[in-house]
């Protein structure tokens, strides 16, 4: 059980999470592993961030409406899970970060955690000369209007969904890098009919999964520690004007 002890924990409240690079892994394996990690952790268990890439899968949040799956015959499996939110798609070319954090130890409210995760996405996009923005009432990150994004302004590029159990989080955030976007046409992404979903490659970024994952991991770590890193210069493979 994840609980804050009466006496001070030997772990620093701001200790950086341990990064785990799990590579390509079936969604069900990651789901069961993060649930087990959360169930078995103690007040002294270090926080972790897992970086994963999944084979094609739709996931439906615990209060999700199956009607948002528009094409049940797509051949892509649907997994019902215990995170918040509606339906989303995971697949090759998408960086998924699972955030296994003790929020009480970090003295983080859920809303503040979501804000920091979203800022990490915005910072990562900025490292590749892309601008992202939040939308009120719609968790995730969307392409900000600009002269070089054309009709993709407002498209969703990152999705977010969490589960909090006994003061600890699991599930996380996904960032679209270079994907086959057609499966998103088979759903109402996050429950929004007609919402366009886009990836970084469509917007001109040539960086691959590994490069973006490293940048994203560093940005998540910095933001969760409360010290967002300034972007000194564009990353390799950034979009060119």
Automatic annotation (TrEMBL):
It comes from Paraburkholderia ginsengiterrae. It holds the Pfam family LplA-B_cat. This is Octanoyltransferase. The active site is at 190 (acyl-thioester intermediate). CDD domains: LipB (cd16444). GO terms for cellular component: cytoplasm. Catalyzes the transfer of endogenously produced octanoic acid from octanoyl-acyl-carrier-protein onto the lipoyl domains of lipoate-dependent enzymes. Lipoyl-ACP can also act as a substrate although octanoyl-ACP is likely to be the physiological substrate. HAMAP family: LipB.
